[in-house]
Each structure stands twice: as C-alpha cells, then as structure tokens.
Design goal:
Elements (H helix, E strand, L loop, with lengths): L1 H9 L5 H15 L2 H13 L5 H6 L5 H15 L6 H10 L2 H24 L5 H9 L2 H4 L2
Helix pairs in contact: 1-7, 2-3, 2-5, 2-7, 3-8, 5-6
C-alpha cells in the first residue's frame, strides 16, 4: 500500500485520474483480466472516472493520448521505445511529470508481474463488477 500511495498520491504533478487510466492501460496491454478489472473498479469507484472512459480508455486531450501511448509501448515492448516517442512525451509534459509517468507505468508493470505470478483468479466482487458494467460487451 505504501508503494501504491507513493505513486498515486504523494507526487502531485500529474492528476490522479490520469495515473489511474495509465494503470488500466498497462493492465489491458498485458491482457491481465484480474488487474484490468481491479484497477478499473478502483478508477470508477475511488477516483470517480466515468465508466465509459475507463471501459474505452480514450481521450480528447493530446497529452493524455500521448501518455497512454507511452504506457502501451512501455508495457508491451519497452525496447521499442524510440527517441520519437520520448520527444512527443517531453513536448507534452515537464521533466517532473515525465518522472511521474515513468513511475506510474513501472508500478503498473510491477503489479502485472505480481498478479500473474500469483495466478490471481477473479474474486466474486470483481465478477459482479464486470457483470454490472456489462464488461465484455462494453469493451467490444
């Protein structure tokens, strides 16, 4: 919990809602259903992000789109990050914000490793959450 709080709450240069969407994006990039469901529920219930935004993780903001794109590349194939990726990120974010983006993405990838290694099955509360939001239909 301390790591979670440190990444999401103690650094204040990025909005917590953006960090929550970064976590969801990383989980989806990995195809980690447990983490995706858990973090989506957290984003909707605790950070009050609209369900449609979480289910379809999209944004009108160029900065948010750039951050989510970085999360996808860093989570799927980090060795393919190019100077061009970083140029676009640095164009949209300050140095402090870039560090926070990197910390949030690293934390999400850490969570993926831990939950994958543990083989965490969906708990009834998370299954109910999926059913409530028509999870699978809502994301198609």
């Amino acid at each position: 919990l301390r790591l979670h709080d440190a990444v999401l709450f103690h650094a204040h240069s990025l909005p917590t809602a953006l960090k929550a969407l970064l976590l969801v994006t990383c989980a989806r990039t990995h195809g980690n259903e447990y983490l995706d469901t858990f973090l989506s529920r957290l984003a909707i219930d605790q950070y009050h992000i609209p369900a449609a935004s979480v289910l379809h993780v999209s944004s009108a903001s160029k900065a948010v789109t750039t951050a989510l794109g970085l999360a996808q590349v860093a989570s799927s194939a980090p060795l393919t990050l190019t100077p061009s990726h970083l140029y676009h990120v640095r164009k949209q974010f300050s140095d402090e914000q870039v560090v926070e983006l990197a910390a949030t993405i690293a934390y999400a990838n850490y969570l993926h490793r831990v939950t994958s290694a543990a083989g965490s099955p969906l708990e009834p509360i998370l299954m109910n959450f999926q059913n409530t939001l028509q999870w699978k239909m809502g994301r198609e």
